[in-house]
Amino acid sequence: MRRKKWIRPVYKKTQVFAFFDEKMAMKWLFLSLLIVGCAHHAPQRDPSSVVTQFSAWGPYLRHEFGNIADLFTDPTFLQMPWKISSEIAADGKELPPNKVQEVGVACADKNLYPTHPFQDTKEYIFSVAANYDYTKLPGTSEACITSTTSKKFCLRAQTANVVIVSDTYEDSCGNMYRGYWVKHYRSGGNKYQTEDNMGTLVAKGRTIYEKTNSEFAGEVYSGYTYPTPVSEFAFLGKLLPRDALKIQTSLQNSVRMGYVRQGKIFISPKNLK
Hints:
Elements: H1 22-38, H2 57-65, E1 83-84, E2 102-103, E3 111-114, E4 123-131, E5 144-147, E6 154-157, E7 159-170, E8 176-187, E9 206-210, E10 220-225, E11 228-229, E12 235-237, H3 243-256, E13 260-262, E14 265-267, H4 269-272
Antiparallel strand pairs: 1-4, 2-12, 3-7, 3-11, 4-7, 5-6, 7-8, 8-12, 9-10, 13-14
């Protein structure tokens, strides 16, 4: 599923993780890899779920999180029930939970690595949203966008969003998976209020950077990749039938565009300069 097009504001590199200084990012990356390779870690659990027992994503989320609204600040002021998001086209019907072929990691190393550096295989599986009732929300709430001068009443409020995101990964042994995770965030308001920025739904293990002097506002390019612990995923599944060709195409594009693969890590040509 693809996110519907909408105009995003431009964010400075210092605003979100995906946009911090590239040289600093690379130092952090290599330090992290050194720690992963040398330090002794307690065994990490594989993602464990009962996802295949459910025929719809709503009941699965309630099983995993209880009242989903409790993931957000001031949940009692959210207008229920949850509705399919108008911003992200993903109603969960194409891939219901009981159609996921769940698997565990077949490798001693419990880190997963992106199969390529791009966002091409990322999919939004399910997405719901709920508006805050601004007529009842306190003006002092973090979810209030605009309030009266006294802060007693809220005049405009944010939207709560829950999205199941998925992308393709491989382990150190060369086995490939589709990893799934749940992302929740508030949207609406200025850049200091909203939790919805250009890095919010970036696929795990991948980075993006804002293009400088770009003709189009908010245009980005893919940066380097890094390992993600298996425990950060809700569950893992087999690749979907369409994934193999997409991965192959993305790998070919990465070579054509000058990306270099060091072990399981992709380095962008801009990082190599």
